Amino acid sequence: MGKILSKGFEMEEQLRNYFMQSGYFVVRGVPFAYKGFDVTDIDLWLYSRESSLTRNITIVDVKNKKTPQAIERIFWAKGLAQAVNAQNVIVATTERRKEVKEFGQDLDVLVLDGVFLSKLSKSEGFLKNRFSDEEFFDSIEKYSLSKLDGDWKGQMVKCKSLLTKGISFDSCNQWLEVSRYFAEQILTKPSQVDVALRCFYYSLSLFSIGVDFILKELSFLDYDERISKLIEGFTYGAKGLNGVTKMLSLSLSLVEQFAAEGKAISSQVRSKIMADFESLPTGIIGEYFAKSDVGKILFPVAKELEGLAMNRQFRNHLESSLELRGMLGCLLDCWEINRKEFSIVVSTS
Questions:
Q1: In this structure, are 185 and 288 located in the same domain?
Q2: pTM score, whole prediction
Q3: Partner of 161 for a Cys bridge, out of 31, 217, 296, 322, CB 3.0 to 4.6 A?
């Protein structure tokens, strides 16, 4: 067992364990900001995949205090869910009055009351094999240069915060970029391979959830159409080719109007930018994730990756499922990282 947690954080970890055992993918402590202002943290963010056509996002507000102000928390959590595009809301409170549960029902909010939490608090060993979030971040900060060397902890926090902005190709591409960064750190920081791998696995777990969410909207398309949509999204982001082209035209119109030889410069810039987009090796991952059998395994692979990141006794992915290793191989190919070289470095961890 690691560091001692406050009562509130301990309850969040107990609830995280409960929801994980119930089959959810769970993220704890998700920062929510609005126009640059830090608003709050979502205590628990839950993701479930009930079928090829159904995904559900649930937020959980946890209050383990003597005066939990449960009615106010129901209002707060309901509004927060709308702001972060969550379909379901749960409030976990030490409050035991039946009126609180009834009020929650009226607002379509599930209330886990003090009776439930008291039973949950009797469970032991929920952090026997896993890090708490605090321990995960402590493991990163043991690398004394992690703040200067790309802010490893900050990148993990940012990865979490993307969940509140609505999952899209934009968030998936950012998770993919963070994963690539840590893949490179694994190769170049031999003394920090374990912690770089933890960060690598964690960002990839969120990426896997993101792609799983996007595939719901593409499930009715045939294979070739899915490939096309995925390649476009991984290349140009949520706006797609048309959106990027319009944005580029709008930006370059100012150059054409006010710069000397504006049209010539605009044409050169446009050609260069579009050539850069088209040179991205996104065809590899587009074709891979378009496969229907790959779509089916993304949710369990995401949970497996998260487990690797948070495992108390560190272990790498070389003995993980064939599906997980297949996905990593595809991404390494996309990043032009030699699979064999990567495996050799990982095997020393």
A1: yes
A2: 0.91
A3: 31
